[in-house]
Design a protein that fits this description.
By secondary structure, this protein is mainly α. It has one domain. The chain is built from four helices and no strands. The protein has helices at 13-41, 46-72, 76-98, 105-127. It is globular, with a radius of gyration of 17 Å.
Length: 132
């Protein structure tokens, strides 16, 4: 039996991903600003800075995947994974342009963390109840 489609069309996949990436970037920027404020108050080493930046990346990926899943309303795992991969590619390109960063073995770990967090966020976003 064929499902009836409403006359109102949803956003395209590209627009949904753009919204999810924007939310992820916003969350990451807010967390990095909060962490920068904390780092001015305490004396921390490179390991703390690395852990904080990875935590901000994972949290931003989760919220980006969540937003993508909420917008997509189905296939949350795939939508979240796509958001995570796109985030990683953008960060890798920006890092190579601005910091002379090249792909290393730690990049693979960050790729896995980003995709996993965004995928979990996508699944949670799809399965969250909608308010009417």
């Amino acid at each position: 039996m064929r499902k009836y489609r409403s006359k109102v069309r949803g956003l395209g996949i590209a627009a949904e991903q753009l919204i999810a990436l924007t939310v992820a970037a916003g969350v990451i920027m807010l967390l990095i600003c909060a962490m920068a404020f904390l780092l001015t108050k305490i004396d921390a080493g490179k390991s703390v800075l690395s852990a904080m930046s990875t935590g901000a990346l994972v949290t931003g990926a989760y919220f980006g995947g969540y937003t993508g899943g909420r917008k997509r309303k189905r296939n949350g795992l795939a939508a979240g994974a796509l958001t995570g991969v796109l985030m990683f590619v953008i960060i890798l390109i920006a890092g190579s342009i601005f910091a002379g960063y090249s792909a290393r073995i730690t990049s693979f770990g960050k790729l896995l963390l980003t995709v996993a967090a965004a995928s979990i966020g996508g699944v949670v976003g799809v399965n969250t109840k909608r308010f009417s």
